[in-house]
């Protein structure tokens, strides 16, 4: 389920892990059933013994990747078990804003981007964001052997982005081109939808550029696979920096399970601190691919 074979240790050293507090209140429309993958990372068997465990189901925003290592470390080292939490990580088949799944009780918490939380808030959905744990450098990736040297060179290119042929990807690239003094129209681009497998889209010559990529994942992944990759950072070329990951839940869940969620955040912080203090260890302790079991909600 990993996109390529990115070096976890290198990816982690480029990540901007943090744990801070956010509060947003936001009434949800039904969504069609989604297929998920329940992730068992070969951590402790939380259901054995007499100790009462509280199950906490956390939905990932997309496929398992180095951004999630603080959680995997905390599971692998038994910190959640010691705290009485049976942590279950759930991976969606496609990128997911899990507000409706949370409201239906299929998930307790989920990872998403602040952009989606703002959208959910605007639509009146019942969601609250309570912690940020990753702030990385996002942008548009391209290969060094292409004819792209600066943002305005992207005019008229094939753009890989999830959601194609929607307007999101071209709007990002157009803004960067114009900030660099170039000119282009949205219909000048050729949209390419290779899901979230940005690196594959470039290496297989399906696209010329890819967005939105995280420097700590896709750029390092491409280089690890033997290709010279570079990228233009959003914040350097006129696009607001929104490349963060946060946790969300239902307001009632936060109220009812506040102590458990506070413990979850504390252990997340410990996982982040562990990565900063021992950057050489995550690659070894998470090198075994988790077992993935298909489930339907």
Overview of this structure, please?
Helix 2 (69-76) crosses helix 10 (258-277). The strands form two sheets. An eight-stranded mixed β-sheet has the order 1-6-12-5-3-4-2-13. The protein has a five-stranded mixed β-sheet with strand order 9-8-10-7-11, sandwiched between helices. It has helices at residues 8-13, 69-76, 79-82, 99-103, 114-122, 168-179, 198-203, 215-224, 251-256, 258-277, 282-285, and strands at 17-20, 35-40, 54-59, 85-92, 109-112, 128-135, 138-143, 158-160, 190-192, 209-214, 229-233, 244-249, 291-296. The protein is globular. The longest helix is centred in the C-terminal third of the chain and has 20 residues, at 258-277. With 297 residues, it is an alpha/beta fold. Strand 8 (158-160), helix 6 (168-179) and strand 9 (190-192) form a beta-alpha-beta unit. It is built from eleven helices and 13 strands. Helices cover 30% and strands 24% of the residues.
């Amino acid at each position: 389920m990993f996109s390529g074979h990115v070096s976890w240790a290198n990816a982690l050293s480029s990540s901007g892990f943090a744990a801070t507090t956010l509060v947003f209140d936001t009434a949800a429309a039904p969504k069609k059933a989604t297929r998920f993958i329940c992730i068992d990372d070969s951590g402790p068997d939380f259901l054995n013994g007499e100790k009462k465990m509280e199950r906490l189901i956390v939905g990932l925003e997309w496929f398992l990747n180095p951004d999630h290592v603080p959680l995997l470390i905390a599971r692998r080292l038994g910190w959640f078990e010691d705290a009485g939490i049976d942590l279950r990580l759930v991976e969606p088949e496609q990128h997911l804003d899990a507000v409706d799944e949370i409201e239906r009780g299929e998930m307790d918490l989920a990872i998403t981007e602040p952009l989606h939380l703002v959208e959910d808030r605007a639509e009146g959905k019942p969601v609250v964001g309570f912690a940020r744990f990753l702030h990385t450098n996002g942008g548009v990736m391209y290969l060094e052997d292409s004819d792209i040297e600066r943002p305005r060179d992207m005019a008229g290119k094939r753009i890989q982005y999830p959601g194609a042929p929607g307007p999101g990807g071209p709007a990002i690239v157009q803004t960067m081109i114009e900030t660099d003094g170039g000119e282009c129209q949205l219909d000048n681009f050729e949209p390419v939808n290779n899901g979230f497998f940005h690196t594959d889209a470039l290496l297989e010559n399906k696209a010329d550029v890819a967005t939105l990529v995280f420097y700590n994942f896709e750029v390092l992944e491409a280089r690890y696979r033997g290709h010279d990759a570079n990228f233009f950072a959003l914040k350097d070329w006129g696009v607001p920096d929104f490349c963060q990951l946060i946790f969300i839940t239902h307001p009632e869940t936060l109220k009812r399970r506040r102590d458990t969620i506070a413990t979850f955040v504390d252990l997340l912080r410990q996982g982040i601190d562990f990565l900063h203090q021992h950057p050489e260890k995550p690659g070894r302790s998470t090198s075994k691919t988790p077992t993935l079991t298909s489930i339907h909600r």
